[in-house]
From TrEMBL:
Keywords: Iron, Iron-sulfur, Metal-binding, S-adenosyl-L-methionine. The keyword S-adenosyl-L-methionine applies. GO terms for cellular component: cytoplasm. Residues 89-327 form the Radical SAM core domain. It comes from the Bacteria. This is Heme chaperone HemW. Pfam families: Radical_SAM (PF04055). One of its GO terms (molecular function) is catalytic activity. GO terms for biological process: porphyrin-containing compound biosynthetic process. The keyword Metal-binding applies. The lineage of its organism: Bacteria, Bacillati, Chloroflexota, Anaerolineae, Anaerolineales.
Length: 477
């Protein structure tokens, strides 16, 4: 195995210069100097072999807390603890709701989400799951003081929430409205594939109060779509987006760097088409290997794709959006006009998160909980436990990390939050390093900082830098 890897590395090091040249050929002239500048800042002059392929590949995302240490409480205890917590928080601070729907029409090979198709007994599963969600909503709704706090947004993610069907989603939204406090500003949003969207759905959901939709377009290039199993033509996808925009929806979408055969100029053409058709927000991801998509990586030999190649495409997409007036509202989400991406940006507004449904995480203050996987969720939901797997209380050090993490992920890290948590000297050293590596830049006003495309790419590195500066020996990261 190691020998194979060694051969692969030799092969890539011989091939990389060639591929890198090709990738630069695909970058519009106007972005080349900016991207080379970003890349140049990363070069480590102290290393003898300054291999950029290795440098841009040195990154990883930290795992969530529940994945790195044991829960403090099982599901029943966690619910008992939580029953008091929502009331101890400010009555005026809004909070947000996330509802996870794990069903999809088919499983896409590249996808890393907790989602699966329902081949057998589809309607029975849908009914059971809807009943469980409504039961959980009512349990939370029994917490009187939680009821008084305004909801900023309800975000249905997945999976494909539309798999529940209009009448079940109608039932869930009515349960939410009955149990919680909606204001005229509460935004209802859902994620979907374009293939599940119809004019009827857009009209009905408008009437239910939904106004934002995140469409997993992934790519508009015919050959790429074929490889990832998307059957709709790019023309149909764009027609549906136009229809949503006509109905007044805020539309955002994904761009996934690293899909097989997805390169420039295709990526930039897609961004242009999506912008022209009214998309107001873009999440830029790199396709990352995980146990759920390993076969897809093998099928298309994706592990052999030079990381530097992907880094340059990522940077180009980012620069293109910046050029067109989009701004970071999260480290990897650029938006303009009305798209505020309220669910993903809720931590920067210091909102609590009420997660509902299988594998949904939630937190109130420093108490975090997580729901069980699908079958265990259905089995465990009862009047004593809303389907929790467990809960934990963040330690003081974990709380500090959480605050720094929120700042970094927001795309606009506030130095004052760092100073308050890890002290002046460490904060200044950290920010000086990030500025030197062009991970962040100081805004023209001099008052705030913004993550650059380098920072977005190395988000995991920024998080680990922050973690290393937290003064404790017991902190698990
Ligand atoms: S990409 Fe979307 S539709 Fe495909 S399996 Fe993942 S969540 Fe479902």
């Amino acid at each position: 195995m190691q020998l194979c890897r060694a051969y692969r590395d030799v092969f890539l090091s011989l091939l990389a210069p060639q591929l890198i040249m090709n990738v630069w050929d695909e970058v519009p002239q106007e972005y080349i100097a900016i991207i080379k500048d970003q890349l140049g800042a990363l070069e480590d002059k102290t290393e003898r072999h300054n291999n950029l392929e290795q440098i841009v590949g040195r990154r990883w995302m930290p795992k969530p807390l529940w994945a790195v240490r044991n829960y403090d409480h099982d599901g029943i205890e966690a619910w008992e603890k939580l029953s008091g917590i929502p009331s101890s928080h400010s009555r005026i601070t809004p909070y947000c709701i996330y509802i996870h729907v794990p069903f999809c029409r088919a499983r896409c090979g590249y996808c890393d989400c907790y989602a699966f198709p329902l081949s057998k007994n589809e309607q029975r599963h849908i009914q059971q799951y809807t009943d469980a969600l409504v039961q959980e909503i009512e349990m939370w709704g029994s917490q009187e003081l939680l009821k008084e706090r305004i909801i900023s947004t309800v975000h249905f993610g997945g999976g494909t929430p539309l798999m529940l069907g209009i009448s079940n989603l109608d039932r869930i939204v009515n349960a939410l409205k009955h149990n919680f406090c909606f204001s005229s500003k509460t935004e209802l949003a859902f994620e979907t594939t374009s293939s599940m969207l119809t004019e009827e759905i857009l009209a009905s959901f408008n009437q239910l109060g939904f106004s934002r939709i995140h469409i997993g377009v992934q790519s508009l290039q015919e050959d790429v779509r074929k490889k990832i199993g998307r059957r709709e033509s790019p023309k149909t996808v764009l027609e549906k987006i136009r229809c949503a925009v006509r109905f007044g929806w805020i539309v955002s979408t994904d761009v996934i760097i690293g899909l097989p055969g997805y390169r420039n100029p295709g990526i930039l053409d897609d961004l242009d088409s999506l912008m022209e058709n009214g998309v107001e927000g873009f999440s830029i991801y790199e396709l990352v290997q995980s146990p759920r998509n390993r076969l897809f990586f093998d099928q298309f030999h994706l592990t052999q794709q030079p990381i530097l190649d992907k880094f340059i495409m990522f940077q180009t997409a980012f620069q293109h959006l910046l050029k067109h007036g989009f701004e970071n509202c999260l480290y990897n989400h650029l938006s303009k006009h009305r798209d505020k991406n309220l669910y993903f940006t809720s931590p920067s507004r210091h909102e609590d998160l009420l997660g509902i449904g299988t594998i949904a995480d939630g937190y109130f203050g420093n108490f975090q909980y997580r729901h069980s996987t699908y079958l265990a969720y259905l089995k465990s939901i009862s009047e004593k436990n809303p389907g929790f797997e467990g809960g934990l209380v963040r330690s003081a050090a974990e709380d500090v990390y959480r605050q720094l993490e929120v700042e970094i992920r927001s795309g606009k890290p506030d130095p004052l939050v760092f100073v308050a948590n890890i002290g002046y000297e460490k904060s200044m050293d950290l920010f000086a390093k990030w500025i030197r590596l062009k991970m962040i830049c100081v805004d023209p006003s001099g008052d705030s900082c913004t993550l650059t495309p380098n920072g977005a790419w190395f988000i995991g590195k920024l998080l680990s830098d922050a973690a290393e500066n937290i003064d404790t020996t017991t902190f698990i990261y």
